[in-house]
Amino acid sequence: MAFDVSEIISHNEEETAHLARTLAKSAKPTDIFTLRGTLGMGKSVFARNFIHELAGAEIEVPSPTFTLVQTYETEKAPIWHFDLYRIEEAEEIYEIGWEEALGQGILLIEWPERLGSILPKEHTEVAFEMLGRGLRTITVSNYINE
Ligand SMILES: Nc1ncnc2c1ncn2[C@@H]1O[C@H](COP(=O)(O)OP(=O)(O)OP(=O)(O)O)[C@@H](O)[C@H]1O
Ligand SMILES: [Mg+2]
What is the pLDDT of residues 65-85, one digit of tens each? Predict the structure, then answer.
């Protein structure tokens, strides 16, 4: 079940960055953010800014396209940034630290649909849709375990 849904229109990369930084400020250990949307929607822009807000702007944030995951130390909690586009089977997630991540991390997951039923019910979904050149609708929904 989803509640507390909010929808914003992002006109450019900077507005998506601002949303990411706002959500990062209130994120807590064990929070899970799924980033949904097709190629080039801004999932990585969101992740990079979220990470910069908590880990510092000087930190390099490479895309985990091939490594599937990158981790970052922050004062609040470690951030685990997953990009599961290239994962072949959902179960591979256990080989790249999934249980350790769930225990204490803040999780950012690009392509969460790859996890199927492994994805915990309780999470915040950030869903991107293309409206036009530079324009995106970004819908933030909190899913609870009921
Ligand atoms: N409103 C917007 N918000 C975010 N990015 C935008 C926006 N408008 C245009 N862009 C551009 O769209 C691109 C988004 O790229 P990004 O790598 O974040 O996409 P992605 O969703 O991670 O794609 P992929 O699934 O291929 O990894 C960037 O080049 C960015 O400048
Ligand atoms: Mg990406």
Answer: 999 999 999 999 999 999 999
CATH 2.40.50.100 holds for 30-133: no
CA proximity to 85, closest of 61, 63, 102: 63
Residue 146 Cα to ligand 1 middle (Å)? 33
Ligand approaching nearest to the C-alpha of 36: 1
CA distance 102 to 110: 16
Which residue's CA is minimally distant from atom 1 of ligand 1? 12
What are the boundaries of each domain within the chain? 30-133
Ligand index nearest the alpha carbon of residue 113: 1
Query: Is the CB of residue 17 less than 8 Å from the CB of residue 140?
Result: no
Closest ligand 1 atom to 10 CA: 1
- Beta carbon of 124 within 6 Å of any ligand 1 atom: no
Question: To the nearest whole number, what is the mean pLDDT of the chain?
Answer: 96
User: Among all chains, which residue has been given the structure tokens 């849709």?
Assistant: 129
Q: Is the pLDDT of residue 3 over 90?
A: no
Instruction: Output the pTM of the full model.
Output: 0.96
